[in-house]
Amino acid sequence: MATSRKTGGAAASGAGAGTTGDPTKGRWGLVAAALLLQFSIGAVYAWSVFSKALQSEEAFGLTKVQASLPFTVTIAMIFIGAYLGGRWQDKAGPRPVALTGGVIYAIGILMASFVNSADQLWLLILGYGVISGFGLGLAYIVPIAMLLKWFPDKRGLITGLAVGGFGFGAVLTSPVAQALINRTPERPTAAFLPLGIAYLVMSLIGASMFRNPPQGYAVPGWTAASAGTTRSTHEYTQQEALRTPQWYLLTAILMLNVAAGIALISQAAAAATDIASYSATAAASIVGIWAIFNGAGRVVWAAASDKIGRMPAFAAMLGLQGLCFLLLPHAANAALFFILGAVIYLCYGGGFGTMPATAGDFFGVKFAGAIYGLMLIGWSLGGVLGPQLAAALASGGAYTRAYTTIGILSLASVALTFITRIPGSREGQAASVGDRVGAKR
C-alpha cells in the first residue's frame, strides 16, 4: 500500500512487533532517539555563550545588537521550518524529514565556523541564523508528532520528554562551547566546527531510528476511555483545525505563556542584579540553573497534565507566572528572587511540554505535525511580544511597572483556559460542529 511506503518502514517494523504479541515493543527506544536529536538542536539556546565572546574586543568586538542578530534570525526561522516539516512528515513519515532537518542544521553550524571577522557577520547570520534555524524547525516538530502516535496512553509525559530534550540541550552544550571558545578566544566561531560535526552525528543516529507505528496500532489494555483527559474522536486535517476557534485559542494560550516566561528570560541577569543585588557572576550562575528548571518544566507539567487535565495545567502555569511576576520586582531577598524566577522558568518550559499533547487531544494525531507545526507561530509571536513589552516598560530600571503589567496579563489569560474545550465535546460542540459539517461538504 502507498501509505505503508510513506511511513519510513513503519508497516514492516510494526508487523515484526506484532508477531511478538506486543506492538509497543521498541517504542521507548524511539524516545531515546528523539532525545538524541533534540539535545543536538536544543543547543541553539546556548547562544548567549557565543554572544558574549563575540562582543569581546579580543575577538570581533560586535555590539549587543549585532551579536543578537544570528540568534534572533534562528528563532524566526524555526516557525517556517516547523510548518513545512510538519506537513512533510505527515505525508512522508518522520525519518526523511528528521534526517534532512538534522543535516541542514549541522550545515548551518559548520558554515558559521568559517567566519573570521566582524566583516563576515552576514555569513554568521546566514549560516547560524537562516540555514540552521530552518533545519532546526524542520527537525523539531518530527519527534513530537511521531511520539504522539506511539504513546496514546502517555501523551503528556512523552511529549514533555521530547521537548525536554530540547530544553536541556543548552545546559549540556554551554560548558562544552565555553571550553572550545577558550581555546581560540580571538576567533570564538572556531568552536562551531567540532560542535557542528557532533550535532550532525547525533542527529543522524537519532533520526535514522524514527518510524511511525503501523496502521491499526493500539496499546494493549488501553483505550481512549481510560485516558485522564477527554479526547477528540475525529482526526482533523490542518484545514479543518483552522476552521475551529479552538485552534486559535490554543495558539493564543501558547503565545501568552511564552510571552510571560521569555519576558524574564530576556533580561534575567540584569533583573537579578538590579532587584536582588546579585553580583554579575552570581547572576550568570542562577540564569544557568534556571535553564534546568526550563527543561524540567517541560516534563513535569506535561506529566501533570495527564493527571489533572490540559486546561487546568495551563491555568496553573499562567496563574503561577502571574503571581510570581507581581512579587518579583519586590523580591530584594536573593533566595526569594531565585525561587520566583525558577517557578516562572518551570512554567515557561511547561507550556512547550504540554501544548503538543493538548493539540493531539483536541485534533487527533494523524495530522499532528502540520497542525502543531503551524501552531508554533504562537512561539514566534510570544518571543517578540514578551521581551519587547518588558524592555519598553522596564526602561530606566522600572521593573515594578513592567513585571506588574506582565503579571496582570498572565492572570487575565487564565480566563482563556475556562472557555477552551475540545471540539465536539459538550462544551465545545456548539462552536465547532458547524465548521466540521462545512468541511465535509
Can you tell me about this structure?
By secondary structure, this protein is an all-alpha fold. It has 2 domains: 26-207, Growth Hormone, Chain: A, CATH 1.20.1250; 235-440, MFS general substrate transporter like domains (Growth Hormone, Chain: A, Up-down Bundle). 75% of the residues lie in helices and 0% in strands. It has 19 helices and no strands. Helix 3 (27-41) runs antiparallel to helix 7 and helix 5 packs antiparallel against helix 6 (94-112). The radius of gyration is 22 Å and the shape is globular. The model is unreliable at 1-19 and 427-441 (pLDDT under 50).
Specify Rg, calculated over alpha carbons.
22 Å
CATH class of the largest domain: Mainly Alpha
Number of H/I helices: 19
Shape: globular
Distance between the terminal alpha carbons, to the nearest Å?
A: 27 Å
Break the fold down into its secondary structure elements and pairings.
Elements: H1 2-5, H2 10-19, H3 27-41, H4 47-55, H5 64-92, H6 94-112, H7 121-150, H8 155-183, H9 192-207, H10 238-242, H11 245-265, H12 268-276, H13 280-308, H14 310-327, H15 334-363, H16 368-375, H17 377-393, H18 399-419, H19 429-440
